[in-house]
Amino acid sequence: MPLALAALLALAATLTSCAYYNTFYLARKYYFKATDGAPYDVDHQTTGQESNYTKAIDYSKKVIAQYPKSKWVDDAVLLWAQALVGRDDPLQTVTLLQDFADRFPKSDQRNDAQFFLALAYRYARRYTLSVDAFDRFFQQAPKSPLVPYAYLERSRALMSLDRYSEAVDDASQILTRFPRSPLVDRALRQRAEARLEEGDYDGARADFHEIGNRATTDADRLTFLMREADCLEAARNYEGELGLLRGELGHTPPPPPPPTTTSLPASGGGIGTGTAAPPPAVPSQFAAGSDKYGRLTMRIGTAELLAGHLNEALAEYDHVMHDYPKSSLSAEAQFRIGYAYETAGDDFDRALEEYARVKGEYGTTQYTQQAQQRSDDLSRIQQFRKGTGADSLERKAEAGFLTAERYLFELKRPDRAYEEYGNVAQSYPGTSVAARALNAQAWVLERKLDRRDSADSLFWKVVREYPATEAQIAARDYLEADGQTVPDSLIVLPAPPPPDTTRKLTPIPRQTPVLGAAPRDSLRARRIGPPPGRFAPGMLQTDSTQRAVPPPVFGSPEDSLARLRRAGGGSPSSPSASPPPPAAPTYGPAPAPPDTSKRGGSAGAPPASAAPPPAAPTYGPAPAPPDTSKRGGSASPAPAPPDTSKHGGP
Length: 650
Hints:
- This protein is an all-alpha fold.
- It has 25 helices and 2 strands.
- Helix 4 (90-97) runs antiparallel to helix 6 (110-123) and helix 8 packs antiparallel against helix 9 (164-177).
C-alpha cells in the first residue's frame, strides 16, 4: 500500500513537471522576452514583439487544454491575459479576468489578476472603471511588488479624467515611498505633466529641469529643456522663456556656413552674373543633433512672436532659413513667417504670399499641407470681408466672428479673440450682430479669462439693450445658469419668421417615364403584362375581374377590329377565338403603323357577339383613315368599297 501511494505521488509530480517544463515554462519565457523582464510593457510599445506574445498565448492555452487539473492552470490563464494586454487586446483581457476570483477562489494570483484587470480597463479607455479596479487592488494587496506600477497607471488614468491633483499625488507616492524603483524617472515625468495641466507651472518646470539633469543623451536634454520653455510659455512669462533659450543657445556651437553658389554661364555663351534657379527640391535632413542651434533659434522666434515682437520674430526665422537652407527647418521657418503675418501682423495678403512659398520652394513637406489649409481659411475670411449685395452686413460680420474664433480655438489666444469680438460689436452697434458679439465677449471673460463679474455685466447689457433678439434669450439663459434671476418683463421674444409664400411645384410622380424614351421595363411589360389587380397608366377596366385592357394603338390589328365592330361586321375566321391578351401601355411618340399587307391568311378576331372594348379618347385633329388595301385574302370591310383596279378582285 505505501508503495502504491508513493507511485501515485511520483506520477502526479511527473505530470506537474511536464505541465510546467513542456508548456508553462515556455509561455513565461516568451512573455518576459517580449517585456524585457518587466511585469508588462510599461511604455506600451508592442512593435516587434507580437510573435513572442502570440507564442506565450499558445503555450498558455496548451496548459489549459492538456493539463486541466494542473496547479498551473490559473497561472496560465493570467499569463494569457497579460499577453493579450501586450498584444493590445484589452477587451479580451477584461473578459478573461473579470471573473478570475470566482473561478479560482484559492489561487495566489488573484491580486495580480486584479492589477491586470485594472490595467486592461485603462488601455480600453474605461478610465473610471480602471480607477475603481486599482482602488480594490490597493485594498487587497497593499504590499504587492506591483504597487508602484499601480500608482503610475492610476495616475495616468486620473490624468485622462482631468483629475490632475490626484494624478500628482499618485506620482508623488512613487517618488516618496519607492525612491529606488525603476519607475522613478517615469513618475517624475508623469508628475511634471500633471502639474503643467493643473496650472502649477513652477512645480512642473522644476520637475522637467530635474529630469533633464538625469538625461543621458543630448537629445533628451534638449527635449526637457523645451518642456521647461513650455511651462514658462504657459505662464505667459515670455521674458523668462527668452532668457532660458538664449542661455542654452550661447553654449551651442552654430552650424557651418552654407555653401556659396557660383555664377553660371549665361545662355549666350558669355559669363553670366546670376545663378540658375533650381527647381523645388525635397528638404534635406541634417545629422542627428546638428540642428540643435536651429531648433533653439526657431523657438526664440516663437517666444518673440508670442510676446508681440513681430519684427524680432521674423528676424529669427530668417536666421534659420539662412543657416539651414533647403531643409525641414527652413521649411518650418517659412511656414512660421506666414503664421506671424497672419496672427501678429493681421496682414492676410502677405500671409497668403508666404504660405504659397512653402510649397513653391520646398516641395511636399509636412508644413505644405498646413500652409495650404491656413491659406484656404484666410481666403474664406477675405471673401466674407469683401461681401457685397443685400447680405453684405452679415457676411462682413461673419468674417469678424471667424477671425475671433481662430484666435480663441486654434491659436489659444483668448485675449485677442476678446478684442476681435469687441471690434465686431463696435462696427455694428444696435444690431443683432453686436448682441452676438457681446455674448461672445462675455463667454470669453467667464470661461477663458476668469472674469465672471465683467461677463455678467455684458450679459445684462444684452438683456436690457437688445430686446427681441436671439442673443437676448441666450444672455438670459447664461445668467440663470449662474443662479441669477432675470425678470420676465425684460424679455421680448423675437418675431417669428414670415411665412413662406413661394408657390410650391407639383411633385413629379415616381413612375413617370422620361419623355421621348420608353423605359427598359416596358419591353418586359409587353411580354408579361402588368401585375394582377393593378392598372398601368392609361389602361381601362373592362370587367369585374379587374383585368385591364389598353386602348388600341392607331393602325394596329386591334384598331382595325374595333373599326370592324363599329361598322357592324363580323370576323370571317374562328368565331370561338378569345380576345387578345392585354398589352402594356406605350409611352412617348406613337409607333409607326405596322405593315398589314400580307399575302394570304386573315387576322384573328374576337366573336361578333363580344362587346367591343371602349376606344381611347383622341385629342387634336382626327387621324386619316388607314390604308386597308391588302394583297390577297379578305380585307376588313370599310365604309367605302376598296379600289380593286390595282390588285385584282377578291
